Amino acid sequence: MLFRIVRGYNLHPKVTLESGARIADIGAGTCIWPIDIVGELQYPVTVDAIDISMAQCPPPSWLPQNIRLITHDVYQPFPIHMQGVYDLVHVQNWLCIWRNETSETLIRNLLSLLMSEPGGFIQWSEQNPKANRLIVAPDVSCSTQATQDVLNFLNAPRQTIDFEWVSRLGEYLDVQARLVAFDRFGSSNEHQQLWSIGVLQACEEFASNLERKAQSNGDIERAAELRNSAEKAAVEMLNGVGIYSELVVAVAQKDSNKPVQHDF
Q1: How many whole angstroms separate alpha carbon 215 and alpha carbon 239?
Q2: How far apart are the first and last CA of the chain?
Q3: Rounded to two decimals, what is the model's pTM?
Q4: Which of 43, 141, 149, 206 is most buried when burial is the number of CB atoms within 10 A of its CB?
């Protein structure tokens, strides 16, 4: 919902769809985007909400009839019957899922879903941690240390993930498709609390991932430290401390003249 507020749309103006279009929402989570888009469009579409687990999704009986739930690991090839049939692939909030060493496989699998003639679209939105910075409302004199600790964690170099990929998302997509839009939206003052809450939610996901994939006691300790900093940062944010952030949106169209690439 925050992304929609900041962008001003669910569907990028460069994406053209027609009645009966098929849409794949990747990493559907709570299914909020599929629910929003089928209610917003003035013509019938079908949305396949795809995720590795449907634990966060409402029961199918609670969803509109044109939303279908599909369980699939997108790092694995999609079944043949799903390839080349979608007019739009929608992706957002993959910060905690992206891995540099498997990015080639991920993008190749996503683009395999799109129709070739006419070329289907992929719309990908991400919060850009590289743009994060501490901000404080005027006349606020409370501590900012915990919020800075959260920023330090997010900006720390990692072996398996480098948030530089968000700034280069358009380049990644343009290798195997044709980039048609690359937009940046900065967080505004009126949405600052929402942005900051979103960052804290991302911290919880990072902490959970650290615990789930822990290779040492140090990983467990880092997860506990991050949760502790995020809890204290939440108090600071109530007093006027925030994290400025940026939303990146890349839109590309499948191009049958571009061969599948195996390097980035």
Answers
A1: 37
A2: 32
A3: 0.87
A4: 206
